[in-house]
Design a protein that fits this description.
alpha/beta; 38% helix; binds glutamine
Amino acid sequence: MTAATELTIAGARAALAKREISAVELTEAHLKGIEALNPRLNAYITVTAEQALEQAKAADAALAKGEAKPLTGIPLAIKDLFCTTGVKTTAASKILGNFVPPYESTVTANLLRDGAVFLGKANLDEFAMGSSNATSAFGGVENPWKRQGDNAALVPGGSSGGSAAAVAARLALGATATDTGGSIRQPAAFCGIAGIKPTYGRVSRFGTVAFASSLDQAGPVARTVEDCAILLGSMSGFDPKDSTSADVAVPDFAAACARGVKGLRIGIPKEYRLPGMPAEIEALWQQGIAWLKEAGAEPVEISLPHTQYALPTYYIVAPAEASSNLARYDGVRFGLRENGGDLKDLYERTRRAGFGDEVRRRILIGTYVLSAGYYDAYYLKAQKVRALIKRDFDEAWGKVDAILTPATPSAAFGRDEKQDDPVAMYLNDVFTVTANLAGIPGLSVPAGLDTRGLPLGLQVLGKPFDEETVFAVGRALEQGANFTATPSVRAAA
Ligand code: GLN
């Protein structure tokens, strides 16, 4: 049998059902890997070994009674942005460094309902703001991949870098993640795994620490498209506790993976061909088009004319919402508290001690674009452009069933690169932010290696609430790419 940590979620489920492996053995194998590699990779902020073993024992008992649920005994990493009852939830910020939630996020409650085992809380950029995991107050995460002939530490992407690194390094079978502008898809691409940001409203935001509420969506990362589909099925569903949760049925996403792409029209947006884009990104995109054509789909050139405004629009809307959401961290009710002479002093000391540089930058930009005199020039204008970006997609759906683009403009970069240039860092999101602004689903699929042996991803965008087609296209790309490369740093098989 395949080594426990090398299994897919679908494979582990079958092995558990046949009792070829126990849930306790599966969990122990992952905990052993975490013990060996987490000191180096820093993918987990908190490891909940005892709780994981308890959950695994309960899973074995359920399996023995023939009462297995969709995720019984499947060990997962949980991004440390999801509130977990009794387990520290930090958002990778000092300001929540000691916060132990008394309640469970809907996403994690759904996964527990379906029998999952939680190995621990995965590292991220502070409050999910970043593209390299460097802004975590608990130290950066190292990408388990290396450039050929070069031992330099690379970033795993962000903000869900801990989730992606843990899954790539075989320290979890899958993980939860969140995506406000690319934080599921970019780290998935950098770590050679798959990840989907579903349609806005598909997954409840209740109990997930908010960054930018109109853009935030949770989704899974895993090593195969089908595994992402299995996890998304459990995470999804209407939740009366989230006013933006959509009351729509949750289809069988895993079944949709096998649908094939025969007759589907795949949009190729010309605006995603950026000046100065590396030739290997363009080559991979062409390769993706060829794979889909071979599988029976028809590529169609389309135009999404407002694409060039997406990044500046995002970097107005996201900080504006962040500055409002983060106003609640004042040291009074929960989290860090730095006492001061009076209330204002307490606020100032607490927030100065609690927030890192990138979070402060966002709060300052957000407060500025919302302030009287600038609101119309920046925030309102950005809202109007956002509507135009969404309209571009609405018009495209008249002509195509899904859209194919590169996932990122480059492979993973060095830990010491781009860190002193916030604008260079923001450019990482150039292909991903449009999906958040328009509220549509986006899936990143590992599709090839760059000239230095690092993974590159392709992105599939779909119609609102049509994740099924996105999964079908993603699965066809996965079959075309036959991506079998593995990172050099991973749990021993
Ligand atoms: N990298 C983007 C940012 O820094 C996106 C982050 C995210 O999706 N959470 O805002």
